[in-house]
Design a protein that fits this description.
homodimer, about 270 residues, alpha+beta, Arc Repressor Mutant, subunit A, Beta-Lactamase, 2 domains, six-stranded antiparallel beta sheet, two-stranded antiparallel sheet, 8 strands, about 45% helix, DNA-binding, transcription (chains A, B), HTH_MetabolicPath_Reg (chains A, B), DNA binding (chains A, B), GAF-like_dom_sf (chains A, B)
Chain lengths: ~270, ~270
DNA sequence: AGACTGCGTTCCGTCGAGCGCAACACGCGG
DNA sequence: CCGCGTGTTGCGCTCGACGGAACGCAGTCT
């Protein structure tokens, strides 16, 4: 039952593009597919969505109208295109409020932000990129433009390195695409990157200076669950001029300590 | 703005407690209903969800399984209960990145935070409570515990007053439940509160000193869209001792100016 | 202007997808 | 052990979701 009956050869190339699809309740599947398309494109019309899903225009419309009734999507104007709506944010608020990872990590992250004066982030691995779960602003006015929910490349960030360091060889290969170059300091050699990961594993922390963006420095340490797996990563990041070499040692000590504290609260080292 | 709602007079057997429901594609409607229930309860079992929606267990299971395939829900353990998942957060990231309100407001909010030294929030009206969309921390270490996605009572906050001031009588009645008392300064009289709203409308800003919490002061101004409707509210809040009467004038000037600037960027006053 | 092409939206008849039923596998407590 | 509670799975019947086609409206080309 793998292939969906695509009987219409209207001429349009039937490209399932990307998504799970094909598993579960058909109409719900399609509706969620719409959300994913909108997340990717930012904004789409009914016709566009219909082509993307390989369904009739009217079908796409009915689905999107249902989503709209629940405020998960909204249209830019009457008779306009569609985009993701506020309902998503409401759900997201309820999600983070309940995730015990965020729950446990938040007070510690806040203290870390106060101690270092820089921005603290918590990220998890999600489909070959880093998903930022939470962010606590530093005391300085100069803040990074990241935001919860953003996708960040794994090989050019301290968080990414930490998260990858917890994977075995097979999973690593799957998660690691090609290593894009962002700055002259980005590590792009595969062998070289594996060495870096070994170093991270050994040291228990990761550093990235100017690797994603010139002038941006970040350090990160792993958060482990009761089984000892790396489930998340906690980082401190800020402008490189505020995080010079001689200050990094101090910051590293704080980050590693904070991450270990969260790990303990999640049950690591108990039993 | 045709309402899709009233085509049929509810043949439902059991009261679906709360939610939109009854409009659009049935199975999608139910699936989204599940998300809303999970957002409310935090965690539920299949059977529980089934009775909540008034459907058969197996139906609820199939729906929740589809949601799980898209990572919008996850189960606490194999054969365990269900809760909202990371997929929601991914969608939320894509949402905030594209919502032009947040997009436009963020740099201005940040500047306002720098100028005042206090925390800036942006909130919208969402089902008879305030939904906080964005937050920029002030320069001081002492920060409020709020977070994006939280629901806050409308009648005891400056943001809430501003948002309510944009409604007509009918909508106001619908949005306003009973006026709970939080502190001795909370306005609880209905007539009194309407006078306060009239003042807010006239002045173009709202103030709340010790009304939600003793020691917490906040001021807010409306953000308008191209049609002139109040779509959001921007506030500055901090400890009352840092925001004494004689400083409020200055802060108010800044807030009103910032909110007006955002409104302009959203097309207000243009043509 | 007028024809034309694209959009989002609506109506309707049909047929297969999704529903409820019932049976299943498992965990718990009496 | 049995009963009762989960979450999970096949299976036929039926009703709800689907695609086709037409509509109203906005631009755009001729």
């Amino acid at each position: 039952m793998a292939d969906v009956a695509d009987l219409q050869d209207e001429g349009e190339k039937v490209a399932p593009s990307s998504a799970v699809m094909g598993a579960g309740v058909q109409s719900v599947d399609r509706a969620l597919g719409i959300l994913e398309v909108l997340a990717r494109t930012g904004e789409s019309g009914v016709t566009e969505l219909a082509v993307e899903l390989g369904v009739h225009k009217s079908t796409a419309f009915r689905l999107v109208a249902t989503l709209e009734a629940h405020r998960l999507v909204e249209q830019t104007s009457d008779r306009g295109r569609y985009r993701l709506g506020m309902g998503i944010l409401r759900l997201a608020g309820a999600t983070t409020a309940r995730l015990d990872l965020v729950q446990e990590a938040r007070p510690i992250a806040r203290q870390l932000a106060v101690d270092t004066g820089e921005t603290v982030n918590i990220a998890v691995l999600s489909e070959s990129s880093a998903l930022y779960l939470d962010q606590v602003a530093g005391t300085s006015a100069l803040q990074p433009h990241n935001w919860v929910g953003q996708h960040i490349p794994l090989h050019a960030t301290s968080n990414g390195k930490v998260l990858l360091s917890g994977l075995d060889e097979a999973a690593l290969d799957a998660a690691l695409g090609k290593l894009a170059t962002y700055t002259p300091h980005t590590i792009t050699g595969r062998a070289e990157f594996r060495e870096e990961l070994a170093r991270v594993r050994e040291q228990g922390y990761a550093v990235a200076v100017d690797e994603l963006e010139i002038g941006l420095t970040a350090v990160a340490a792993p958060i482990r669950n009761a089984h000892g797996d790396v489930v998340a990563s906690m980082s401190v990041s800020g402008p490189s001029f505020r995080l010079p070499e001689d200050r990094l040692d101090e910051v590293l000590r704080l980050v590693v300590g904070a991450a270990r504290e969260v790990s303990h609260r999640l049950g690591w080292g108990h039993r």
